[in-house]
């Protein structure tokens, strides 16, 4: 297992409403995400968190699949994973 810093966004803030943020934190917790930060700037939001995975592709696939499911089937943000040494 390796540790990755995962980020996605910016996305339209409607994808991460105040009501939905609690649910987002719950689904990210279910995949083992830690240190989750939902940053908002104007009408945009960016999500960052730490995730353990076999490799960067697995981290991206896990995060993107989880965010897509959370958003009802489509997550418009680009998901990027960078390994933490």
Question: Summed up, what is this model?
Answer:
The chain has 85 residues and is of the alpha+beta class. It has helices at residues 18-30, 56-70; strands spanning 2-12, 34-41, 44-53, 79-83. Helix 1 (18-30) packs antiparallel against helix 2 (56-70).
How are the elements arranged and paired?
Blueprint: E1 2-12, H1 18-30, E2 34-41, E3 44-53, H2 56-70, E4 79-83
Antiparallel strand pairs: 1-3, 1-4, 2-3
Helix pairs in contact: 1-2
Q: Give the spatial strand order of the biggest sheet.
A: 2-3-1-4
Q: Share of helix among residues?
A: 25-40%
Q: Judging by the overall fold, what is the CATH architecture?
A: 2-Layer Sandwich
Distance N terminus to C terminus? 12 Å
Q: Please provide the ordered H/E string of secondary-structure elements.
A: EHEEHE
Number of domains: 1
Strand content: 35-45%
Structure summary, number of beta strands? 4
CATH superfamily grouping: ACT domain
Instruction: Count up the helices.
Output: 2
The biggest beta sheet, please? 4 strands, antiparallel
User: What best-fitting shape do the alpha-carbon axes yield?
Assistant: globular
Looking at the structure, the CATH topology is Alpha-Beta Plaits
Kindly report the average pLDDT value: 93
CATH C-level class: Alpha Beta
Report the radius of gyration as a whole number of Å. 12 Å
Class by helix and strand content?
alpha+beta
Low-confidence stretches: none
């Amino acid at each position: 297992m390796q540790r990755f810093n995962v980020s996605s966004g910016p996305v339209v803030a409607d994808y991460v409403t105040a009501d939905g943020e609690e649910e987002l934190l719950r689904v990210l917790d279910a995949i083992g995400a830690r240190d989750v930060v939902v940053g908002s700037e104007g009408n945009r939001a960016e999500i960052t968190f730490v995730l353990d995975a076999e490799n960067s592709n697995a981290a991206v696939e896990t995060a993107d699949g989880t965010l897509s499911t959370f958003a009802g089937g489509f997550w418009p943000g680009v998901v990027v994973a960078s390994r933490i040494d």
